[in-house]
Amino acid sequence: MISKHNLRTLQELRFNGRYSTSISSGPLGREGSRKARCAELLRYRSNLLGSDLRITNFGGGNTSSKLEQADPLDGQPKQVLWVKGSGGDLGSIKRSGFATLYLEKLLALEGIYRGVNLEDEMVDMYPLCTFGNNPVAASIDTPLHAFLPFPHVDHLHPDWGIALAASANGKTKMEEFNRKFGHKLVWLPWQRPGFELGMMLKKIVEETPGCDGVVLGGHGLFTWARHNVNLISTRSPSSISLGSSSKITPTLQVIILVETDS
Q1: What are residue 213's phi and psi, to 5 degrees?
Q2: 21, 10 Cβ separation under 8 angstroms
Q3: What is the percent of the chain where pLDDT is above 90?
Q4: Which residues are CB-contacts of 206 (< 8 A; sequence separation ≥ 6)?
Q5: What pLDDT was estimated at residue 245?
Q6: Mean of the pLDDT values across residues 48-65?
Q7: Least confidently predicted of 38-47, 62-71, 238-247
Q8: Which residues does 213 contact at the CB level (< 8 Å), separation at least 6?
Q9: Range of 225's domain?
Q10: How many whole angstroms from its chain centre is CA 51?
Q11: Which of 68, 89, 154, 186 is 20 to 30 A off residue 179, Cα-Cα?
Q12: How far is residue 120's CA from residue 138's CA, in Å, rounded to a whole number?
């Protein structure tokens, strides 16, 4: 059963007709319908984030969800990573624009990883992890999503986030942000996107229980949730000074649960 709260939430998500009512109307007990509904929510979440230039610059950022699906080869349930395909735009992406990969195979790549000096060779392994007959190419950020142990992950580059990440005193100001707004963001020094950064994200989350996001130095943000969530609105509660003459205004995401079983 979908609770009254979740039913109301789904109705709210349909504003402007951008959430597919045909996907959400299927019985919760049908695996295919559940998978399609979760994938549609990922698409919808991505479009909302990508259409707000306070949160996402055009063509930048990526989103993902880890969904359980029946393997087309043997019918057994498998964890599948749905992640924005290489070169896609969040604001206009459709479900067909997401790469789909066996999560188990992606995680197993850690066992053959030969270190940062050879991390580019890992890119050739991603097509071998493809789930289903999906031609969408996985992006360089795929391991960043795979190795974060959360079902739903967003990687964005809001202007204020870039300003914070690129500031000489960014880590200090991030800690000020945490104190002021009750968050537990952690700071990860600059590392170019790739398999090594995926390993670094995995490590810092394991070493920081309860953290709710990562600021990538000189880069942007990673945030996540254990339930499928959607951005409903944004607000800018206050400004944080970066120095004597510059300020950033954090845009906090107001999120609500939409599918407690996903």
Answers
A1: 170, 165
A2: no
A3: 63
A4: none
A5: 41
A6: 86
A7: 238-247
A8: 183, 184, 185, 186, 221, 222, 223, 224
A9: 4-259
A10: 16
A11: 154
A12: 14
pLDDT in tens, 77-95: 999 999 999 988 999 999 9
End-to-end CA distance of the chain: 13
Please give the sequence-ordered ranges of beta strands (E in DSSP) within the chain, or none if there are none: 62-70, 77-84, 98-102, 152-156, 185-188, 213-216, 220-225, 228-235, 240-241, 247-248, 252-259
In the block, residue with structure tokens 């880890």: 66
Phi, psi (degrees; rounded to nearest 5) at 97: -95, 0
Look at the block and give the residue holding tokens 């943000």. 221
- Number of domains forming the structure of the chain: 1
Q: What is the DSSP string of 4-26?
A: HHHHHHHHHHTGGG-S-HHHHTS
Q: What is the CATH number of the domain that holds 254?
A: 3.40.225.10
Q: Are strands 98-102 and 77-84 parallel, antiparallel or unpaired?
A: antiparallel
138-182 residue pLDDT tens: 999 999 999 999 999 999 998 888 999 999 999 999 999 999 999
What pLDDT is stored for residue 33 in this prediction? 66
Q: What is the pLDDT of residue 228?
A: 65
What average pLDDT does the structure give for the chain?
80
Burial of residue 74 (CB within 10 Å: 0-12, 13-18, 19+) is: exposed
Q: What is the DSSP letter of 148?
A: S
Taking residues 219-244, report their average pLDDT.
58
Query: Strands, DSSP E only, in 85-241?
Result: 98-102, 152-156, 185-188, 213-216, 220-225, 228-235, 240-241
Which amino acid is located at 188 in the chain?
L
The pTM score is 0.80
| Contact criterion met (CB below 8 Å) for 106 and 131 | no
pLDDT at 201 over 60: yes
